[in-house]
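User: I'll paste a sequence; please echo it back and then give the predicted structure.

Assistant: Echoing your sequence first, then the prediction.
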Amino acid sequence: MLEELGVDYNTHVINIGKDDQFTPEFTAINPNGKIPAMIDQDGPGGEPFALFESGAMLMYLADKYGKFLPPVDDVRNRYVTIQWLMFQMGGVGPMFGQAHHFRRAQTQVEYGIKRYTTEARRLWGVLDGHLAGSAFMHGDYSIADMAIYPWTARYDWQGVALEEFPNVKRWFEAVGARPAVAKAMAINLAEAA
C-alpha cells in the first residue's frame, strides 16, 4: 500500500524466529504480538498513530490518502470492497497460514495437513469463481487485492498450482506486474532473508 501511494516510509524487521514480536517495544504498538504493525508519524491531529492488523492499516491508509477504497458516500462499492478485505482477514490469511504451518512443520500431523490444505483449496476455488467475472476483487485495484495477493504468492506452500485456478492466475499475474507490488514483494523477501 505504501509503495502504491508513493509515500515515504521506513521498515523495521521483526524477527519472529527470535521472538522480536514479544518485546515491550513491539507490544506497545501491537499488544497481540503479531506482525504487521505501523506507526504513522503524521497521524490524526499531526500526532503519531500506531495501528495493528493489516486490514485496519489498509483501511486507515486508504481513507487518509483517498485511494484504493471507495469513499464513504459510495456505500455499496465501499462495503463490497471491505467484504473482500474481510474475506482475506477471516478466511484466506488464517486458513492459508495454517496450511503453511502444517505442510511445512518439522513434525507432520496428517489431520492438520489435510484439514487446512482442503480449506485453502476451497478458498482458492471461491477466489477463482469470483475472479471469473472481475479483473480485480471488486471494481478497480483496491486494498482487497493488496491484502489477498501476498497470501496467494505462497501457493506452493498451500499445495496449489496456479494453473488449477486460471482466473486467480490471471489476477495474480496482473497484480504481480504492478511496479509497486513487485518492489514491495522484493523488499519483503530481502528483509525475510
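Strands lie at 37-40, 49-52. Residues 31 and 71 are 30 Å apart (CA to CA).
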